[in-house]
Amino acid sequence: MSTNLFLKQNSIATQLINFVFSIYCVIAVAITVGQIVIEYKHTQQAIEDELKTNQQIFEPVLSAGVWNLDKEQITNTLNGMLAIPIVIGVKIEQKGQFFTGMGIIKSNSGEVLKFNENAKPIAVVGADSTNIFSYEFPINYIFRGKSREVGSATIYSNSSVIIQRVQFGVILIIINAIIKTIALWCLFVWAGNRLLIKPLLKLVHAIDKVDFDELGELEINLDNKRENELTIIESSFSEMLKNLADTRIEIIKSHLLLEEKVKERTKDLLESKNEAEQANKAKSDFLSRISHELNTPLNAIVGGSQVLQCNMTQGDSDNSILLKHINTAGLHLSMLVKDIMDFVYSNKDEFEVNWEECNLNDIIISSIVMVQPFTQAQNITIDYEQKEHNVYADSGRIRQILVNLLNNAIKYNKKNGFIEVYTSVNSEGAVQMHIKDSGIGIDSSDQELIFEPFLRLDYAKTNCIDGIGIGLSLVKTLVDRMQATVSVYSKINIGSTFTITFKQKKEIQH
Amino acid sequence: MTNIRTNFLIFSFLFCSFCDAQTTKNQEPISIIVNDWSSQIVLAHITGNILNSVGYKTKYSFSTINEQWGSLSQGIDHVQVEVWEGTMSAMFERVIKSGSVLDAGSHEATTREEWWYPTYVEELCPGLPDWRALKKCSALFSNDNSSIGRYVAGPWEKPEAARIRALDLNFKIDTVKKADDLWSELKNAITHNKAIVLFNWSPNWVEAVYEGKFIEFPEYHIDCEIDPKWGVNPDFHYDCGNPKNGFLKKAVWAGLKEQWPCAFDIIKNINFNNENISALAAVVDFKKLSYEQAATQWLNENKSIWQQWISQNCKAGNIP
Known about the structure:
The complex is a heterodimer of chains A (510) and B (320).
Chain A: H1 3-10, H2 12-67, H3 71-82, E1 89-94, E2 97-106, E3 112-115, E4 121-124, E5 132-143, E6 146-158, H4 159-208, H5 229-311, H6 317-346, E7 356-359, H7 360-378, E8 381-384, E9 390-393, H8 395-411, E10 418-425, E11 431-437, H9 458-462, H10 471-481, E12 485-491, E13 495-501
Parallel strand pairs in A: 8-10
Antiparallel strand pairs in A: 1-2, 1-6, 2-3, 3-4, 5-6, 7-9, 10-11, 11-13, 12-13
Chain B: H1 2-27, E1 30-34, H2 38-53, E2 58-62, H3 68-74, E3 79-84, H4 85-98, E4 101-106, E5 112-118, H5 121-124, H6 132-136, E6 149-153, H7 160-166, E7 171-175, H8 179-191, E8 197-202, H9 205-209, E9 212-214, H10 222-226, E10 248-253, H11 256-259, H12 261-269, H13 274-285, H14 291-301, H15 303-308
Parallel strand pairs in B: 1-2, 6-7, 6-8
Antiparallel strand pairs in B: 3-10, 4-10, 5-8, 5-9
């Protein structure tokens, strides 16, 4: 189907015309039916009037016949009455009893009977009874100057008589209605086409042909001589297109300008990124090198100080204390260097996890032993209820994580505080390791930030707690590498609980 | 005592109500039809007087012979004492068949209605009373010196024109307005010894006063009226005369038997012969007595006859 045909068949104007015309047709049919009914009723009334007229014509003759019980005379009269086209039957009654009849009549019991021209019954007609209507009049005979009712006559007619009479009128009514309907339809179509369909089609075509690249050249001409809604739409649409064209030019200009700016910004960002990456790399290289460079002399210092301590006598108590300080400081520095190296290494792409079945109990015990010197110094107790849980991870990294967390728990704990380490299995079957302390706690606003590298909380700074701010960051990185998760629950002045949740072996993605 | 009186009053009331009903029923007058010929009127009065004698009230109601059947059927009139076969048989049989009128028996008299002429006309027109003689001497009966004879008809509807046509008679019909005009015409013709043929019937006073004969047309047969092929002319009906020896009956309204049973019995018993009827008609038409006088005269002179018509149960004072 072509667009034009589709638009013509489905356009609002066509729908409007169809709708209005359909309603008109319904009303026209109703009016025509009404006219036919009125015509029918009018004709029926006219026929009934004609039947009444027959009373005046035939009553004198009938009355003489009925008076004398002269069936021959009555029969002749009835034959004359039946010659009238509207009369289909006549019945004569005397004192309420059937006397004689002719044609199609109705008995007192409602039965439809047929009599021949000699007034002899010939058939019982049951089906036509509903179409029959009648007019009854008394038969009066004037005897000795006094009118006496000697019987009654009933003249019958039926709807076929009416139909015969009205059929011409009905045909005229129907033809009239059809002609009017056709004329009105043509008028509707012509007017609709001229006033609505054509202008609307032009408008639709114009809208359909709108080329956003050539808006300036678009022009709609509906050829409407009179000002109406369509001409307003036409002018408004043209105005809108003009404005659209102007706006489009502005947008194109803005777009070009924006593209230039984006290009510049992208270039700047790339440069900044490269610089940042280079700086980061330089930083990592520097940290790696400096750690490595620091580690060698530190090993010598720690090792040397330990040897010297072993060789000290009781008289050298002053030197012994000095050596102990050197050894402790060396160990601390060594640990710092180790943390830096681990942090740098863990962020490198070549970091690898040594996957294995790890006995958490062994790792926890060994970790607790490692931090015992620090707990004793602060009189902090570590509680651990041993449980046998295995996880699939890197045992060395787990220990490194646990030591870091235990160190933090010690550093930020109160004197005579406690640390509780325990393991569990959650509802999904994952093994969890918990490190709970009775420390100062972490503010809820800081809980999001504590895993950021080199970040130190105000409390640590003001209370001169040593550290460079990479412990928790390292923990987070290692945990991530092992596809585990770390979470923290903390309340100020009550303490914190760090929980490591390990994935089951089947869930690990290599 | 009070109870007895109360019971008496209730009994009297009930009994008298019944009496009233009976009285009212019988006090209604019996309507006797009178027509326009003398014998019928006199017979009607004789009947009325007899009924009066046993206690019935009567009245006389004039009716034409055409209308009387409707009034008898409807119960407006109740008695017709002369039903002539020649003029009334068809309608009489019709109403009898309908059940609204009863046949109350026949008189001994037989009737005939036909063309009639005084005997002296036979000398003027030889061949009479045979109808064919009329063909030859139609001019004799003319009253305008033409060849077309004149037939004087009564005021009653008869198929005379059909008969003239069927028998090819060269006659015209001159209808009089009343029966008396017939006798004026007859008297005038006799006075001048002129030929005349007129409608007459028997029994009638004329036969008691004037000598004459009926024309003998072809014998009547019912097919003559319904089958044109029957008779001397195969093309027309009525190529025959009227019936001879026709009956003379009495007719009553069907309800009379129940309402006035004695009256019905009496009417059934009433019986006149030709001689009686002719004489009664002559008393009126010739001797010029009134109908009532003629009736009274006959009743006085024939008590033994009419009292036999009243059964013992219906004597005066016994009528129910």
